[in-house]
Write a structure and sequence with these properties.
Oligomer: single chain
CATH superfamily of the largest domain: Bacterial extracellular solute-binding protein, family 7
Strand order of the largest sheet: 7-6-8-5-9-11
Number of strands: 11
Number of domains: 2
Structural class: alpha/beta
Helix content: 40-55%
Distance between the termini: 51 Å
Strand content: 5-15%
Largest sheet: 6 strands, mixed
CATH class of the largest domain: Alpha Beta
Mean pLDDT: 89
Low-confidence stretches: 1-37
CATH architecture of the largest domain: 3-Layer(aba) Sandwich
């Protein structure tokens, strides 16, 4: 029933990319001209899959708005491949990417209701479902730390991860893991953003996330939520002056054609989550639960290295396309974090998350040995 529902939804929605650039569920989409084609994996013949011989085959649907080739989409497909290898094809994951089954918020609602099983996405769209995830909106909170240090907190045995597990359960989801490696959302602009003062009055497109908008307002910019498919033309026409996104999304949208500068503001961690409907998870045989979690863990391990390479390569591509890269000394980040409005935002998020924001900061510092 779930598979049939999802396929019907796919034909009806025909949504295009919202992915990394969209977020927040506010973006509109242009119609897709193709019928969704679920990707499935062929199991490896070398794996010992005998533990699953007596179990009935299971098929799960995993949906994402990430574009083909984007880190999130590659991550989803790698999970499906690993699950098939581990179980000899007995646990099949059909992947629907590129917004084929809906934008991020649509997908999350469908997973919450059980119409689809799994969703991969960035974090911003989840905050309205799980207020605790606002900790990812803390500006530049992850910027001083390495990928390994962040990994210890987000995927390790930490108070932060335990609280996030509970938050997902409360939303009728089960959290399987986070994919990150200390790469970030960047800022593109036609203004040479060398100092904090250069952000004053900057008309920047953001996701429709109140915390994100509050940050930009605090440093003097003028945030403007806008559908992702409108951003290129708005930049080209000068209706907005800047936007913020991960490097792979900036490349995919060819924003180097309409933006001069690529500023490494590192304000939001580029992180993807993977989760499953709680009832779907609970209905899996424990052997399949273990296999799925192992598939996610293996995919995270493999993809983390690729994330750094993807980020580096895309920054190089954007520079080759004519953009000037701006990097900042630690003093710049310290100046931003000292802005009263930014400090107020930290306090507000900490209150909204019942102290989890402070727990995250404490555990990151501990992971770094501070």
């Amino acid at each position: 029933m779930k598979k049939l529902t999802a396929l019907l939804l796919a034909g009806a929605m025909a949504l295009s990319l919202t992915a990394c650039g969209g977020g927040g569920g506010s973006s509109t989409s242009t119609p897709s001209t193709s019928t969704p084609d679920a990707s499935t994996s062929t199991p490896s013949s070398s794996a010992d899959t005998s533990a699953y011989d007596s179990l009935d085959s299971v098929s799960l649907i995993l949906a994402d708005s990430a574009a083909p080739g984007a880190a999130g989409a590659v991550f989803d497909e790698l999970i499906a491949e690993k699950a098939a290898e581990i179980t000899g094809g007995k646990l099949e994951i059909q992947t629907y990417i590129n917004g084929e089954l809906g934008a991020d918020v649509d997908l999350l609602r469908q997973m919450q209701s059980g119409d689809i099983d799994m969703v991969g996405s960035q974090i911003a769209a989840l905050v309205s479902f799980c207020p605790e995830l606002a900790i990812f909106d803390l500006p530049m909170v992850f910027a001083p730390y390495t990928g390994d240090q962040i990994e210890t907190v987000l995927n390790g045995d930490s108070e932060t991860r335990a609280a996030l597990d509970t938050a997902f359960e409360n939303a009728n989801w089960h959290l399987l893991g986070f994919l990150q490696n200390a790469t970030y959302r960047l800022t593109t602009a036609n203004t040479n953003l060398q100092t904090l003062a250069d952000f004053e009055g900057l008309m920047i497109r953001t996701m429709e996330n109140t915390n994100h908008m509050a940050f930009w307002e605090a440093i003097g910019a003028a945030p403007t939520p806008m559908a992702w498919n409108e951003v290129y033309f708005a930049l080209q026409s000068g209706n907005i002056e800047a936007e913020e996104n991960a490097a792979d999304t900036i490349v995919g949208a060819n924003l180097n054609e309409v933006q001069d500068y690529l500023a490494c503001t590192n304000h939001i961690l580029y992180v993807n989550q993977i989760s499953i409907n709680k009832d779907s998870w609970d209905s899996l045989d424990p052997a399949y639960q273990e296999a799925l979690q192992e598939a996610v863990n293996q995919a995270i391990d493999e993809m983390r290295v690729q994330l750094v390479d993807i980020d580096t390569q895309n920054k190089e591509t954007l520079q080759e396309g004519g953009m000037t890269l701006i990097e900042y000394e630690p003093e710049f980040f310290e100046e931003v974090l000292a802005v009263p409005g930014v400090q107020d935002l930290y306090a507000s998020i900490n209150e909204d998350t019942n102290g989890l924001a402070q727990t995250l900061q404490d555990e990151l510092a501990a992971a770094a040995g501070n």
